[in-house]
Design goal:
With 126 residues, the protein is mainly β. It is 0% helix and 52% strand. The strands form 2 sheets. Strands 2, 4, 5, 6, 9, 10 and 11 form a 7-stranded mixed beta sheet that branches. It has a 4-stranded antiparallel beta sheet with strand order 1-3-8-7, with no helix packed on it.
Length: 126
């Protein structure tokens, strides 16, 4: 059974940095896409950043929300599979629950299915 295990998050002062990690475990054949969505208090869930695996030897592509594009970076260790979200210059508007999301193929010739992490809280406050 596939699980997404997240680590990181917590409380940070405005202007500070945090790093989130997400690793897929279990019956993972390949990962098509992995990234993060966030849900601020009282608002809907929104895209933060994703990495999509390139096909046919192409490089991976990233998609990062405009609101965080110059402050957040997303990376992935291909060998070890974990993805990381590096968040810099955090401000109170970044306060949210951050959910890891991945589309995972569980067996050869299978179809990708979406999975979600547990969603650690990130709070930016002085």
């Amino acid at each position: 059974q596939v699980r997404l295990v997240e680590s990181g998050g917590g409380l940070v002062q405005p202007g500070g940095s945090l790093r989130l990690s997400c690793e897929a475990s279990g019956n993972v054949f390949s990962i098509n896409r992995i990234g993060w969505y966030r849900q601020p208090p009282g608002k809907e869930r929104e895209l933060v950043a994703t990495i999509t695996t390139g096909s046919g030897g192409a490089t991976d592509s990233t998609n990062i929300a405009d609101s965080v594009k110059v402050r957040f970076t997303i990376s992935r260790d291909i060998v070890k599979r974990p993805a990381q979200l590096h968040m810099n210059s955090l401000n109170p508007e970044d306060t949210a629950v951050y959910y890891c999301n991945a589309y995972i193929i569980e067996r050869r010739l299978g179809h990708p299915r979406p999975f979600w992490g547990q969603g650690p809280q990130v709070t930016v406050s002085s």
